[in-house]
Specification:
Length: 374
């Protein structure tokens, strides 16, 4: 995505709009995310170059010295009748220029916000999604409190209480989420002490941690129907100024929660020839808290099937993951083929099942970024 194009789009998006569950606007357009996350240094912004000491709850909050940041939450829940849903909410903070937002106008800002909200209705084989934009600043349309106690874009919000539990509330004309989320393990730092190197150039990296298992309960509404649900969610946090190298197209990311209490996170950085980048990574988080971090030579991802979207973009849709410390390969299968988000940035993000030797052993979420960036 050309940075000047994105900046212009976000500056005019002062009123949040949902799409496609509400009427689309003329400014909505499909464009790649690559240029916004590319390796060209952004003048004045800090870059992730060295491991750092993480401090909580402060690091749940924003890091405005860096250009890009997101709070990312996905999960699988179901009601007493077995009606299953997958959900996603992501709050993106995008820096337009470094420095303080203390300016004369209440509308003036050096950063803007984008949020994505999605719901997969597995029984109904339906995928709903919406997108909003807003500017930060004194008018308070969007933002994040310094300790991350509240992250919001208008009435979509993620709150954290003094005990460290989260509460998500968000709604569109088509669906509603009201979920309580209780972390079951401490934050897990990825890469080298939380420094996650994504490509060869120094500074093409993010600071990255996960809360990989959150006990979840609450309600999900679709149309006139309300469902009391329980299940599990996953929270990811990253901030950076640049990550992708010149030869990199995007990534495939897996967050898998196994029934034995093991959590598995894998990402494969993808080159333009669709081959794996050397900066791919995996982490196996055991139920007892032990974390095993893997380099690209210690795991493989084999695509077993594919799905083509209505616009002709082809995504993988079934995988075999082989990770050295695990006894059996993991078979990952999408629960609904079409879980593509088609907003300003087009990507596939959806709920999956996990099997080993044909037996169900868990659930998870997969993100496929960069396939539609031509």
């Amino acid at each position: 995505m050309h940075r000047r194009w994105l900046t212009a789009l976000l500056l005019v998006a002062t009123v949040a709009c949902d799409a496609p569950d509400e009427a689309p606007t003329d400014t909505a357009a499909e464009a790649p995310m690559r240029a916004e996350l590319g390796g060209e240094p952004a003048p004045g912004f800090a870059r992730a170059t060295e491991p750092r000491t993480f401090e909580f709850p402060a690091d749940h909050g924003p890091h405005p010295d860096y250009r890009n940041e997101w709070w990312y939450l996905v999960g699988n829940v179901e009601d007493d009748a077995g009606h299953r849903f997958g959900f996603q909410v992501t709050f993106f903070r995008i820096g337009l220029a470094p420095g303080s937002d203390e300016r004369d106008s209440a509308w003036a800002t050096r950063q803007v916000w984008m949020a994505h909200l999605a719901l997969t209705d597995v029984a109904g084989e339906a995928h709903h999604h919406a997108e909003r934009f807003a500017r930060d600043g004194a008018i308070g349309l969007a933002g994040a409190e310094p300790d991350g106690g509240r992250i919001w874009l208008e009435d979509w919000e993620l709150r954290r209480d003094d005990a460290g539990n989260w509460h998500l509330r968000a709604a569109t004309v088509a669906f509603r989420l009201d979920l309580a989320l209780a972390p079951q393990r401490a934050p897990v730092l990825h890469g080298d002490g939380g420094l996650s190197q994504k490509s060869a150039e120094r500074g093409n990296a993010s600071y990255y941690y996960s809360k990989p298992r959150l006990a979840t309960h609450g309600s999900i509404g679709v149309g006139d129907a309300e469902h009391a649900v329980t299940g599990s969610a996953w929270l990811d946090r990253e901030w950076s100024t640049s990550v992708l190298g010149e030869a990199q197209e995007g990534w495939d990311w897996f967050a898998l929660q196994l029934e034995d209490g093991t959590d598995v996170m894998v990402y494969e950085m993808r080159r333009f020839d669709r081959e794996r980048s050397d900066y791919s990574y995996a982490a196996i988080m055991a139920a007892d808290g032990e974390v095993t971090r893997l380099g690209p030579e210690q795991f493989t991802i084999e695509a077993m099937d594919q799905w083509t979207s209505p616009d002709g973009t082809t995504y993988p849709s079934q995988w075999r993951l082989t990770l050295e410390p695990l006894d059996e390969p993991l078979e990952v299968v999408t629960v609904v083929a079409d879980q593509e988000l088609t907003g300003t940035v087009r990507y596939w993000e959806g709920a999956v099942d996990v099997h080993a030797r044909g037996v169900a052993v868990g659930r998870g979420y997969v993100e496929l970024a960069g396939y539609a960036d031509e």
